[in-house]
From TrEMBL, chain A:
Presence of keyword Chloroplast: no
Superkingdom classification of source: Bacteria
Name of this chain's protein: Carbon-phosphorus lyase complex subunit
Classification via Pfam families: PhnH
One of the GO biological process terms: organic phosphonate metabolic process
Keyword Protein biosynthesis annotated: no
Gene: phnH
Keywords: Lyase
GO molecular function, one term: lyase activity
Natural source organism: Nitratireductor pacificus pht-3B
Coiled-coil ranges (or none): none
TrEMBL record, chain B:
Known function: Catalyzes the breakage of the C-P bond in alpha-D-ribose 1-methylphosphonate 5-phosphate (PRPn) forming alpha-D-ribose.
One GO molecular-function entry: metal ion binding
GO biological process: organic phosphonate catabolic process
Organism: Nitratireductor pacificus pht-3B
UniProt keyword terms in alphabetical order: 4Fe-4S, Iron, Iron-sulfur, Lyase, Metal-binding, S-adenosyl-L-methionine
The name this protein goes by in its record: Alpha-D-ribose 1-methylphosphonate 5-phosphate C-P lyase
């Protein structure tokens, strides 16, 4: 297959309804942090971009939203070409310019503070990170508290960025500024909005 | 029957939906903060719920069941026309039963029935900025939110007490969301404020003319502003609903004649009908229904 045909194929089968289904999953995940949502409309992007992460990109990204790709995704130019064809989103040169960041290798992700945090007046002008994780279970357990969570929620994604609990506490301390995270894996989709606290499990 | 035009599902084009969807996600991530968005012209005038309609149109799917209320009623002009709009442009199922709906678009009321997890309540908001009547400049109110400087709002409530002896604000009563942002709950009666606190449903607010979207995720603290010596109180009614006999509900006054005759009935028509179907009767139910 030529590069061009890879770029053109593999989008949503039904753009209107697939995007709506996908958005509802993301919205519910964001509203109830820690819950895992299925019913993801699948796409067929070039590896290492996963169908789930690509689905999020097709749902939310367009010419208004610069997208940053981590080095693992930048390595294969087919990924950028596929995203350019299906979303029209420009590729951000630096993480600070990106509205969305797609990350295939969360373990080696640069520090969260490198991404757009928004300003105190406009905290919505901040990046949303889409992390492709191998699994939403089996990693170090995160005990979650905050808006959208009745008592406590548990999530054990793996792999996660280094020193994630500490990085997340710093992100939380910047509130209302800060980034939001969408976790995608074959098992479904979960989200960590900036309001979510990771409870200390030392005791 | 000639169809004049074929619209995209739910009227809005896909790029507009993406823009609104991104705003909704940021609104959920920053509870109570007003996210600016590029509000579109809708086939209805500003003030008729264009913000709520755009939010609903961006969220709704073919499997949803939609309920629309206007001041609690399913059968008033605004509710009927918005419900018809979505039946036409999205061909979705509609209902008047609060419990059956997945999305409830509302103008100025929260249903009496406790909302469930998974439901989405979409508010139509005229003026999203709670500080707007105290400070007309957007640059200033934005700075006040940024600095969490809400003294002016407390001064306003204090002046109520100085003038009237109690907090006289009865609707659009300001709330603080998750201890950070002061938010306008839209012109709902303050009677409904406690229902926003720790609600199981997701609450989305759309202001079309003012181009703002904000949100309260489920299980989020929503506190009505007050003072230790003047705690927040909701309205109380002397009589129960004249049709269903319900207490602990918000009542509307209905004028019966030109000699001062009046009755008080449930503002939430679905709740009232449900109670009457269960056999509850108010003191005017017989005459009013049988006439």
């Amino acid at each position: 297959m030529t590069l061009d045909s890879i770029a053109i194929e593999g989008g949503f089968k039904d753009p209107v309804f697939d995007a709506q289904t996908m958005f509802r999953a993301i919205m519910q995940a964001m509203a109830e942090p820690g819950t895992v949502h299925h019913g993801i409309a699948l796409t067929k992007p070039p590896a290492p971009l996963t169908p789930e992460a690509a689905g999020v990109a097709l749902t939310l990204c367009d010419q208004d939203t610069p997208v940053w790709l981590d080095p693992a995704l930048q390595a294969d130019e087919a990924v950028g070409a596929w995203l350019a064809f299906h979303t029209g989103a420009p590729i951000a040169n630096t993480p600070a310019d990106a509205h969305f960041a797609l990350v295939a290798d969360p373990e080696n992700l640069i520090g969260l503070e490198n991404f757009a945090q928004g300003s105190q007046e406009y905290p919505d002008r901040s990046a949303t990170l889409v992390l492709q994780v191998a699994s939403l279970t089996g990693g170090a357990e995160l005990l979650l508290e905050g808006p959208g969570i009745q008592h406590q929620a548990r999530l054990s994604p793996r792999p996660m960025p280094r020193h994630f609990a500490r990085q997340w506490a710093q992100n939380r301390a910047r509130f209302p500024r800060g980034i939001d995270i969408v976790l995608v894996s074959r098992e479904g989709l979960a989200a960590l909005p900036r309001t979510t606290r990771i409870a200390d499990q030392e005791d | 029957m000639t169809e004049i035009a074929q619209y995209n599902f739910a009227y809005l084009d896909e790029q507009t939906k993406r823009m609104i969807r991104r705003a909704i996600l940021k609104a959920i991530a920053i509870p109570g903060y007003q996210v600016p968005f590029a509000s579109r012209e809708m086939p209805m005038p500003y003030g008729w719920g264009t913000g709520g309609v755009q939010v609903t149109a961006s969220v709704i799917g073919p499997d949803d069941v939609l309920k629309v209320i206007d001041q609690g009623a399913d059968d008033t002009t605004n509710a009927v026309s918005i419900r018809a709009f979505f039946q036409k442009v999205a061909n979705v199922a509609v209902t008047t039963h609060t419990g059956d709906a997945t999305i409830i678009q509302t103008r100025h009321r929260i249903p009496e029935e406790r909302l469930k997890a998974g439901q989405v309540l979409v508010y139509q908001v005229p003026i999203p900025e709670p500080l707007r009547f105290l400070e007309p400049r957007e640059t200033e109110t934005r700075k006040m939110h940024a600095l969490e400087e809400y003294g002016l709002m407390h001064v306003k409530l204090y002046e109520d007490i100085a003038q009237h002896g109690h907090i006289a604000t009865t609707f659009a009563y300001p709330v603080k969301v998750e201890g950070r942002y002061v938010m306008d709950p839209s012109p709902t009666p303050k009677f409904d404020n406690p229902k926003m606190h720790m609600s199981a449903a997701l609450q989305l607010f759309g202001a079309g003319r003012e181009k703002r979207i904000y949100a309260i995720p489920p299980h989020t603290r929503v506190e009505s502003l007050d003072f230790e010596d003047h705690p927040f109180e909701v309205q109380r009614f002397a009589d129960p609903c004249a049709l269903c006999g319900g207490t602990d509900v918000y009542l509307d006054e209905v004028i019966l004649d030109d000699r001062g005759g009046r009755m008080f009935v449930c503002s939430d028509t679905d709740h009232c009908e449900g109670r009457r179907a269960e056999g509850h009767r108010g003191h005017l139910a017989g005459e009013a229904v049988g006439a």
